[in-house]
Amino acid sequence: MNMKSPIATAIAIAVGLIVLAGYFVPLAILQQIRFQLLDWAIIVVGFAAIVGIINLLLVHYKRFRTSGPGHDSLSLVVILAFAATLVVGLLFGPSSSPFQSVILKIQRPIEASLMAVLAITLAFACVRLFQRQRGTLAVVFLLSVVFFLLLGSGILGTLGNIPVLGDLIGLFNRLPVAGARGILIGIALGSLMAGLRILLGADRPYSG
Amino acid sequence: MIELSPVIFSGIAIGIVLVAAILLFIFSLPSLRSSPRSLRPIPAVQRLRRAIGLAVEEGKGLHVSLGKANLLEPPAAIPLAGLSTLERITQSSMISDRPPVTTSGDPAVSILSQDTMRGIYRSGNVLESFDPAQANLVGASPVAYIAGTLPVAADENEAAHILVGSFGPEVGLLTDQADATGSFTIGGSESLPAQAVLYATAQQPLLGEEVFALPAYLGAGSYHQASLRVQDWLRWGIVVVLIVGTLLSVALG
């Protein structure tokens, strides 16, 4: 059996209920407690970031030091890049213009390159979809992609003035919105139930 | 168009939360509990169960990707669903020669994933087998997260990649890399662009709320199964409200 501390569970449930109540009930005292609790949460997350970074560095240090299958030379690059960013950030300040400029000039081209690779990857993935999922849904998916790409590009915009065709284009423009809302309602219900399970103590992603 | 005042809006929201909580409590009572067999079959989950079994048999690992969301912003429910999934997967695979690993883009989620895994190892009396490096914080921004996770996806010793978290369209790079190594991939997200990309690139995509149902399908307990029934009831309630609302708006002009 997975033992969880009843004290930790009781604190988690109480804090969850107070924050939820503070969101809906406009009582001044409840709002004050809610904001205080959220401030504490932000501080805890800040400490979590420090712990997470230390863990990340230790993992990469271990990978670099290990000789054998687990060895990764690139881990040294991660550690050195982190140290360089930390030193420069401490010297100039994280929001200073030279620091931001150097960081963004490295980060943006790398992210842009990855996005370019993603565009090619997705184009190939659409073709490979038929190898993986041979069925009506795969055909509908591909036809929808082509059709809504044409619709979104504005090529069919001139047809909008023709009476019946214009209405049809309007309908097709609204169709993805309706589908998206249906999926989002499902996601919202799933989120609600995940939150409720935590509030009722049925789900406890902490050992306490 | 009818404008709802903030008080009425709050009242409706509290009402929905209370109804959901009461239904959840009722459906989890032993006499009203539904059997796990009564759940609608999801082919992706059946394939995942088989992949977990194969990974344990072959001594290969499982990778659970928890995405980039943090716990202080709206998609916070998705990493929580990911942590429940991680708990079930760790229970099923901790006896494997190669333990499961997780990647996340948020420090708090990373610590919780480490804590979740440690709790399972402790309850299985194999705490000495747990290595904190199994839970990895890989990158804070969306692209940095994917770039940091790519080496895990490229590892041929990882038999399956379970992507349950908040992703953007860049998740396509991850699934493509996993596909290149012949690993099994299953993925779901709260983001619509990510769901579209996962549909095209993952071997088994999870659409809509299926991602939240994953722990229940992996046998996470009666509360998880009860919550699926509550979701169904609430969904029917929303359908009725939408239809009645549409009819009323047409009738009232």
Which CATH architecture of the largest domain in chain B is right?
3-Layer(aba) Sandwich
Number of strands of chain B: 6
The fraction of residues assigned to DSSP E strands of chain A is under 5%
The shape of chain A is extended
Uncertain parts of chain B:
none
Derived from helix and strand composition plus strand pairing, the structural class of chain B reads alpha/beta
CATH class of the largest domain in chain B: Alpha Beta
Mind describing the biggest β-sheet of chain A?
none
As a whole number of angstroms, the C-alpha radius of gyration of chain A is 26 Å
Task: Count helical runs of chain A.
Answer: 6
> Helix count of chain B?
9
Order of helices and strands of chain A: HHHHHH
Main sheet makeup of chain B: 6 strands, parallel
- Give the low-confidence spans of chain A: none
Q: Supply Rg of chain B.
A: 20 Å
CATH T-level fold name of the largest domain in chain B: Rossmann fold
Give a count of the beta strands of chain A, DSSP E runs of length 2 or more. 0
CATH-defined superfamily of the largest domain in chain B:
TPP-binding domain
Description:
Chain A has six helices and no strands. Chain A is mainly α and 208 residues long. Chain A folds into three domains: 91 residues, no CATH class; 40 residues; 67 residues, no CATH class. The longest helix of chain A is centred in the N-terminal third of the chain and has 38 residues. The mean pLDDT of chain A is 85. The mean pLDDT of chain B is 88. Chain B has two domains: 64 residues, no CATH class; 180 residues, 3-Layer(aba) Sandwich (Rossmann fold). Chain B has a six-stranded parallel sheet, sandwiched between helices. In chain B, strand 4, helix 6 and strand 5 form a beta-alpha-beta unit. Chain B is an alpha/beta fold and 253 residues long. The interface between A and B is large, with 65 and 76 residues.
